Amino acid sequence: MPVITFANTKGGAGKTTAVLLLATELARMGHRVTVLDADPQLWISRWSEMSGEMRNLSVISHVTMASMETHIRENRSNTDCFIIDLPGTKSPLLTMALGISDHVLIPVQGSAMDARGASEVLEHIELLNRKMGMKIDHSVVLTRVNAMISTRSMLLVKALLAEKNVRVLNTPIAERAAFRDIFDCGGTLEALDCQKVSNVEKAMENVRNFAYEVLRLMPVRVVRSDRDGKFLGRKAA
């Protein structure tokens, strides 16, 4: 029952989009996912209301410091993976969420402001490690990446992260119209009309690769497979 937290203290880094893409893909694979929406903007909760009940996926809204651990404890028996969407600002929730996470994903666009927000999360992780002896596994995921162009800003961000020895996922989240449309229309990528939305198949491939890479980072190795015998990832016992 891993807990994955998405954190960047700068809003607009693609954090909530990454949360939604991972949550829906894990649910599609057959994992039971509970998203804890602690972001005051409540984008995930609004998407959930539009989408209606979805198989293997539930969203809990208005999560606070007082309620976060209770939600996890009460849903432990019916959840394979918790995903926490934190506010895109500095918040006391950050310390609590980092402390209970099996892995922290830090979304970063190719901008100095995003890199600064990511640095604040990394510094907080280092502080908890130094002061409390907590070993918090973490990675950066690059978001809204133009698949055709490597901008100067993105190259600088990559160089900065490499200099700090920060793990960067091999799978960036591309800039896709399909990722915006699921927030506007509800539902999942599979439900989008390929005649109206471009490159849906490429968007789905991007998300599958992203989810597989995240699953490989999880600490518990229990393999699940679908009817075709394909590897689906890891599931907490």
TrEMBL record:
**Gene3D superfamilies named among the record's database cross-references:** P-loop containing nucleotide triphosphate hydrolases
Query: Sorted alphabetically, which InterPro entries does this protein's record hold?
Result: DNA_Partitioning_ATPase, P-loop_NTPase, VirC1
Signal peptide (UniProt feature, chain positions): none
SUPFAM superfamilies (UniProt xref): P-loop containing nucleoside triphosphate hydrolases
Where is coiled-coil annotated? none
Q: Which PANTHER family match?
A: COBQ_COBB_MIND_PARA NUCLEOTIDE BINDING DOMAIN-CONTAINING PROTEIN, P-LOOP CONTAINING NUCLEOSIDE TRIPHOSPHATE HYDROLASE
Q: What name has this protein been given in UniProt?
A: Chromosome partitioning protein ParA
Q: Which organism is it from?
A: Agrobacterium bohemicum
